[in-house]
């Protein structure tokens, strides 16, 4: 069974631009979460989607948004990029989500904002 | 507000030693406590998940314990190997908001 796939793996953007990251979960998994990982703040929860609905949301500004499609693939969009958005973005998937079961992580997308 | 702390931030031990990684949390109202490892340039791999009603979980050479009353969890690694070198993270799932709160991790180096 293929693991979680995230594209692109690496991305360089400039301040003010917007970016869309893609995440394909493990087949059969309906929950996709998004995390931001930085050296200073560690891992921080962005949001979770389950069956195309946002089920939970962390404390990030509205510039961060996401969606999930009927095939469970998910996208995260960040508008008006800031230097502090440079991070590794991870999207684990699981069967039912809610953090109550094992989550499976992909390699992440490393975003650099210049 | 839940806070999760992992001390030490880094640890270096000779191959073959048994070792313990520590994780402490401030709010005992957790649904579960999870341990992960992260290898350089890679995502995270789930190691063990302990439900709040459990005291420990075991997988191979790994054993994780949970003591909610003291706000502590430990990850015990037996007979360490160079392949165990990685950053180990713990995360606590709140039983009300179902958001994982993460520790900063312990970077473990096993010297051959």
List keywords for this structure.
heterodimer; A: 114 residues; mainly beta; four-stranded antiparallel β-sheet; 0% helix; globular; B: 112 residues; six-stranded mixed β-sheet; five-stranded antiparallel β-sheet; 11 strands
Task: Please give a structural write-up.
By secondary structure, chain A is mostly beta strands. Helix content of chain A is 0%, strand content 49%. Chain A has no helices and eleven strands. In chain A, strands 2, 4, 5, 6, 9, 10 and 11 form a seven-stranded mixed beta sheet that branches. In chain A, strand 5 and strand 6 form a beta hairpin. The N and C termini of chain A lie far apart (37 Å). The model of chain A has no long low-confidence stretch (mean pLDDT 94). Chain B is mostly beta strands and 112 residues long. In chain B, the strands form two sheets. In chain B, strands 2, 4, 5, 9, 10 and 11 form a six-stranded mixed beta sheet that branches. In chain B, strands 1-3-8-7-6 form a five-stranded antiparallel beta sheet, with no helix packed on it. The model of chain B has no long low-confidence stretch (mean pLDDT 94).
Write the layout of secondary structure elements.
The complex is a heterodimer of chains A (114) and B (112).
Chain A: E1 5-7, E2 10-13, E3 19-24, E4 31-38, E5 42-50, E6 53-57, E7 64-68, E8 74-78, E9 87-90, E10 93-94, E11 109-113
Parallel strand pairs in A: 2-11
Antiparallel strand pairs in A: 1-3, 3-8, 4-5, 4-9, 4-10, 5-6, 7-8, 9-11
Chain B: E1 4-5, E2 10-14, E3 19-25, E4 30-38, E5 44-51, E6 56-59, E7 62-67, E8 72-77, E9 86-94, E10 100-102, E11 106-111
Parallel strand pairs in B: 2-11
Antiparallel strand pairs in B: 1-3, 3-8, 4-5, 4-9, 6-7, 7-8, 9-10, 9-11
